[in-house]
Write a structure and sequence with these properties.
The chain is of the alpha/beta class. It has a domain of about 240 residues: NAD(P)-binding Rossmann-like Domain (Rossmann fold, 3-Layer(aba) Sandwich), CATH 3.40.50.720. It has 13 helices and 13 strands. Strands 3-2-1-4-5-7-11 form a seven-stranded parallel β-sheet, sandwiched between helices. A two-stranded parallel sheet has the order 6-13. Helix 1 links the parallel strand 1 and strand 2. Helix 1 packs across helix 7 and helix 3 runs parallel beside helix 4. It is globular, with a radius of gyration of 20 Å. The N terminus is likely disordered. The chain binds 1,4-dihydronicotinamide adenine dinucleotide and ligand LBAHXFJF. The site of 1,4-dihydronicotinamide adenine dinucleotide has 25 residues, from helix 1, helix 4 and strand 8. The site of the ligand C[C@H](CCCC(C)(C)O)[C@H]1CC[C@H]2[C@@H]3[C@H](O)CC4=CC(=O)CC[C@]4(C)[C@H]3CC[C@]12C has 16 residues, from helix 11.
Length: about 375
């Protein structure tokens, strides 16, 4: 990618490119990366929507593969200039075993890193998570913090443990002096078109006669960021890693935009309200001790029922702690380091999400 090759077309690989975030990254690259020559989309499950992208000017290559299989990753990475690694097992509900979560999120990331090193790929952007920092097991608030805010990060749950380990692997590379330039992006709770949990809440509200019941105090802030802005941040970081390698290499960035600071439930109501739902109660209707009890009961039921069926409700001690602990970010690090500005205003993000909930929320899609 030297000066003489300004017009050189680049090969990008997006792992997890058919997931919620991955699809937005893929579409954003096609729209906003002028140097894109080939786009490889690597995922365990390929989406049918990829077919429509194959008719455009950029060569789109769909690769069905598993990040836990080093040879499959190496084959996909070979010849790619830039890798955006979003693939991951997002499970805080006990659907997958801790071993599987580790294999996909940690070993999978190690395979991606090693493939880049072996095949000479120089730029790697990793999708990390706010959960690498917290909320911690002690329930300490992280109130509008930034990447340098001191916080006691203590993890026990397999998902944050795996994301923290994977991010640590990224950092290790820089210390090792390898030619690979990496950075990690840490989204808070992502929302937007394709957000399954938002749709689940919508359907639950419809079943309950258009109502949802407040469980979390309105004063608990939970960080959220629009998927289009997270995707844009990935595309921009990937583009700028070359030019600003010395500054960006080995760095971590929270993903942020103009989304307001609210509780998890109040934030969801920004979209579900205009879709006809109502959040009942200005204070939690169920006492906290009862939620703690129900969450523990769910764990017991999950364990008892496991031989028969997978019982994985939204409420468990971990998700309750997540929703009930303030964790919000306020930072401009990505702006300072690589010129990131959100592409979508809060109003745009909100409208797009509402339209999506209205269009698909009630359907089986
Ligand atoms: N959803 C959220 O609120 C947040 C997500 N993240 C991170 O963003 C990334 C993307 O998450 P989402 O799009 O929400 O999840 P998702 O589940 O919609 O997407 C993940 C994609 O990875 C693929 N994948 C899973 N295991 C794989 C394997 N073994 N080999 C190849 N592909 C595999 C899945 O098929 C899926 O398409 C993850 O790394 C996650 O940890 C970070 C912060 C917040
Ligand atoms: C499902 C939780 C809300 C349940 C509320 C209750 C128990 C009262 O009904 C969600 C609350 C917080 C969410 C997580 C958070 O946004 C951060 C995340 C980061 C990631 O990297 C992956 C997703 C998630 C863990 C997200 C998952 C759903 C919540 C736990």
């Amino acid at each position: 990618m030297a000066d003489s090759a300004q017009a050189q077309k680049l090969v990008y690989l997006v792992t997890g490119g058919c997931g919620f975030l991955g699809e937005h990254v893929v579409r954003m690259l096609l729209q906003r990366e002028p140097r894109l020559g080939e786009l490889r989309v690597f995922d365990l499950h390929l989406g049918p929507w990829l077919e429509e992208l194959k008719t455009g000017p950029v060569r789109v290559t769909a690769i069905q593969g598993d990040v836990t299989q080093a040879h499959e990753v190496a084959a996909a990475v070979a010849g790619a200039h830039v890798v955006i690694h979003t693939a991951g097992l997002v499970d805080v509900f006990g659907r997958a075993s801790p071993k599987t979560i580790h294999e996909v999120n940690v070993q999978g990331t190690r395979n991606v890193i090693e493939a880049c090193v072996q095949t000479g790929t120089r730029f790697l952007v990793y999708t990390s998570s706010m959960e690498v920092v917290g909320p911690n097991t002690k329930g300490h608030p992280f109130y509008r913090g930034n990447e340098d805010t001191p916080y006691e990060a203590v993890h026990r749950h397999p998902y944050p443990c795996s994301k923290a380990l994977a991010e640590w692997l990224m950092g290790l590379l820089v210390c090792g002096g390898l030619p690979l330039v990496t950075c990690a992006l840490r989204p808070t709770g992502i929302y937007g078109e394709g957000h399954q949990i938002m749709r689940d809440f919508y359907r639950q509200g419809l079943r309950l006669g258009g109502r949802l019941f407040r469980a979390i105090p309105a004063s608990v802030e939970h960080g959220r960021v629009y998927v289009g802005n997270v995707a844009w941040m990935h595309v921009l970081a990937a583009r700028e890693l070359e030019r600003r390698a010395a500054r960006m290499g080995g760095q971590v960035y929270f993903c942020y935009d103009g989304s307001p600071y609210k509780s998890y439930e109040d934030f969801n109501m920004e979209f579900l309200g205009p879709c006809g739902l109502r959040l009942v109660g200005t204070r939690p209707l169920v006492p906290y001790w009862l939620l703690v009890f129900l969450a523990a009961l769910n764990v017991l039921l999950q364990w008892l029922l496991r031989p028969l069926l997978l019982y994985a409700p939204l409420l468990n001690p971990y998700t309750l702690a997540m929703a009930n602990t303030t964790f919000t970010v306020s930072t401009d690090k990505a702006q300072r380091h690589f010129g990131y500005e959100p592409l979508f205003s809060w109003e745009d993000s909100r409208t797009r999400t509402i339209l999506w909930v209205q269009a698909t929320g009630g359907s089986a899609q």
